[in-house]
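Give me structure tokens for this 178-residue protein.
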Amino acid sequence: MKYIEKMRGKTKSPPMTGLSDVIWSWIGGFIGIGAVAYLNYNLLAGRNLVLIVGSFGASAVLLYGAARSPLAQPRNLVGGHLISAVVGVASYQVLHTHIWLAAAVAVASAIAAMHLTKTLHPPGGATALIAVIGDKTVHSLGYFYAVMPIGAGAVILLIVALLVNNIPNDKHYPEYWF
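Here you go.
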């Protein structure tokens, strides 16, 4: 019974976000993902490169909607994505004959690696998973996947977060760098 009691929660839901925060989150998310998507679909069109991956959507939520969270800080954003990308590629290369196993090893190992390096960024789990379950374009990148799309995309999202999150007088980003 004590185990089940733990699932009840300890506190009430946090208060609703103010309209100003909602608007600035929308603006950041639009510009951040818009920049990455624009470059992906215009600059890289017709090449065997990608710049946008699904995990960047989750990063945008953290960067522009919860910028004060430790999970949204530059070290976590960039480090978490890069480490997870390398772990995901390695998992795929070693275990590609058993995709289910490669997927599980990639995500679990990415979580452990991010913890050990103080770079926990939840979207990193998706970054590792995409390296395993992605299409042939992703697989053909090998470890370059960590540079492009992951490193480049994360840096673009970071630059937008630095610019947009510091416009309102009552906000600042980042909380810390390292």
